[in-house]
TrEMBL record:
Bilayer-crossing regions: 7-32, 38-58, 70-91
Keywords for this protein: Membrane, Transmembrane, Transmembrane helix
Superkingdom of origin: Bacteria
Name of the protein: Uncharacterized protein
Organism: Lentibacillus amyloliquefaciens
Source taxonomy: Bacteria, Bacillati, Bacillota, Bacilli, Bacillales
Length: 93
């Protein structure tokens, strides 16, 4: 397996795992009492790492997988920021 392909897969897996955790946070399928707001904050920490992995993969092997990982990580990075911003506007907390 080539290095660029492996990094591309990792850069795509990061937003999918985070998305599953965020959906679980809102839907409540599996109770995670100890990690109350962690799924909302984790994209701020992990998505820049996914973008860097995607950029390295894109430089090594220019493919759509790494480009998809970069785009998904950027979109998911903006989610918590918009979530808190809209929550403040709507609920005024």
């Amino acid at each position: 397996m080539q290095k660029g392909y492996f990094l591309g897969i990792i850069s795509v897996l990061i937003p999918f795992v985070l998305l599953i955790l965020i959906i679980n946070f809102f839907a409540g399928w599996v109770s995670i009492d100890k990690n109350q707001g962690l799924p909302i904050i984790m994209p701020i920490i992990l998505c820049p790492i996914g973008v860097v992995l995607g950029l390295v993969s894109f430089r090594v092997k220019k493919d759509r997988l790494s480009l998809t990982g970069i785009v998904l990580n950027i979109i998911l990075f903006l989610f918590p920021i918009l979530y808190h911003f809209i929550g403040t506007l709507v609920f005024g907390v």
